[in-house]
Amino acid sequence: MTGASPRAQAALAPASARIVTGAGGAGKVPGVLGRRRFVLGAAAVAAGGRASRHLIVYREPGRFGGWPANHGIWSWGNEILCGFSGAYFEKRPPERHQYDSRKPEVPPLAGSTDGGESWTVERPASLVPPEQGGPAPQPLTRPMDFHAPGFALTLRFTDVHTGPSRPFYSTDRVRNRRGPFLFPMFGFSGVAARTAYRVSSPKEALVFLTVSKSNGREGRPVAVQTRDGGRTWSLLAAIGPEPPGFAIMPSSLRLPGGALLTAVRVKKDPENWIELFRSRDNGRSWTSERRVADTEAFSGNPPHLVRLRGGRLCLSYGYRSRPYSIRARISPDDGRSWLPGILPRDDGAPWDIAYVRTAVRPDGRVVTLYHFNDAPHNERFLAATIWEAPRA
Predict the structure, then answer these.
(1) 116-140 burial string, b = 16+ CB within 10 Å, else e?
(2) Structural contact between residues 241 and 214, judged by C-beta atoms closer than 8 angstroms
(3) Is the CATH number of domain 6-387 2.130.10.10?
(4) Per-residue DSSP letter, 10
(5) Beta strands in 106-162 (DSSP E)
(6) CA of 56: how far to CAs of 41, 77, 119, 269, 271, in Å?
(7) Which of 18, 36, 41 has the alpha carbon at shortest distance from 383?
(8) Are 141 and 178 in contact (CB under 8 A)?
């Protein structure tokens, strides 16, 4: 087995046995970013009987803006920040991502202070990875305070199959970030972290990761915990058994009463779907509950779980078959049942869309960010849809 050491296998085995199967400053992107403001007109479409508006957050000729789910989203009232990848566009076969993998991706940050109505895009110098001239990862010597005003944690992988991930953090709403810091491998050959965490106290948090399978390929979600502000971490359990394809990119919520609900992107050829898992012991064991949404072709799409004003849950995701669309489902009872799906947007030109991240405004409207395109071989752009969840 190349994906996990005997130590990691031993740590995961008891959890698997309990599973019941049945979820700095503004720099410049060369020739592209800097600090630019985009205020675009919006088109109205129907989403569950409510008007939705689509806005362009970032679009540049010759570039590929994509994958916000790989970076994370943070919000404080009407202030929203979302990371994404600024890659270089390259025309490729239609079944491939239209970007040049030989050129480096940069990590821009899209920000709004008016609930998503307008956006600025910048590249924080503090997020530049070591491979592009950023500082090397260092041990975290001073604990993070997860309850600090303006706290935001970012976790970024270096490769989806092998190698470590790196945390950064900020206490001023991502204006300046500290890091990167060293992060454990937990006995696996690969730890692919996206920003997915739940804070329990000033020094305690859970982080939800994807780790390598026994064959060394990406594909198994796990929960890890810190109780000392991120200085040390422990592996709690795998979220579900090792899959034949992959189960990746978990998105989690803490429910009233303390249970955890996690949505996971699952691929098992020829199908792709989102599966829900629940833990009633703070992540130490998990029960598979249901397949909540199909994401169709091209390896599917990751989910994002948020809580709406009033207490209902919202699961947003992308759909990679016709109609290529941004979709959502609403649960009135903490994930035990789900209302019929709704389509905040259904006019995608190619399959390569979504990787959604969603925030909820103080007025209750929902802001979903994703990458999108209006022609098969155009550059991908970052878009936002502002929509309202139907009551029934």
Answers:
(1) bbebbbbbbebbbbeeeebeebeeb
(2) no
(3) no
(4) H
(5) 109-112, 119-124, 152-157
(6) 9, 21, 9, 34, 31
(7) 41
(8) no
Alpha carbon distance 43, 385 (integer Å): 10
- The three-state secondary structure class of 237 is strand
Bridge-based pairing state of the strands 205-212 and 197-199: antiparallel
Q: Write out pLDDT tens, residues 174-207.
A: 988 999 999 999 999 999 999 999 999 999 999 9
What is the bridge-based pairing of β-strands 119-124 and 36-38? antiparallel
Total number of residues shown for the chain: 392
Do residues 211 and 222 lie in contact, with contact meaning Cβ atoms separated by under 8 Å? yes
Retrieve residue 102's tokens: 């030989």
**Dist. CA 341–CA 31, nearest whole Å:** 41
User: Could you read off the pLDDT of 220-264 as tens digits, one per residue?
Assistant: 999 999 999 999 999 999 999 999 999 999 999 999 999 999 999
Beta bridge partners of 366: 360, 387
316 in Cβ contact with 291 (< 8 Å): no
What residues contact residue 42 under an 8 Å CB cut-off, 6+ apart? 53, 54, 55, 386
Domain ranges across the chain:
6-387
Q: What does residue 13 show for φ and ψ, rounded to 5 degrees?
A: -60, -45
Find all residues with CB under 8 Å of 174, minimum gap 6, and list them: 74, 81, 109, 124, 152, 154
Structure token digits, residue 128: 């530049």
**Which one-letter amino acid corresponds to residue 309?**
R
Q: Is-above-0.85 flag for pTM? A: yes
Give backbone dihedrals phi and psi of 9, rounded to 5 degrees, phi first. -60, -40
Q: Residues 256, 306, 209, CA angle at the centre, nearest 5°?
A: 95
CB atoms within 10 A of CB 392: 8
Write the CB contacts of 346 (distance below 8 Å, at least 6 apart in sequence): 45, 323, 324, 325, 326
What is the 8-class DSSP label of residue 340?
P
Residue at token pair 């990746």: 248
Residue closest to 243 by CA, chosen among 195, 198, 302, 288 = 288
Residue 243 is given by DSSP the state: P
d(CA 218, CA 377): 28
- What is the DSSP-derived secondary structure letter of residue 132? G
Q: Give the CB-side neighbour count of residue 255, counting CA atoms within 13 A.
A: 22
**Cis? peptide before 270, omega within 30° of 0:** yes
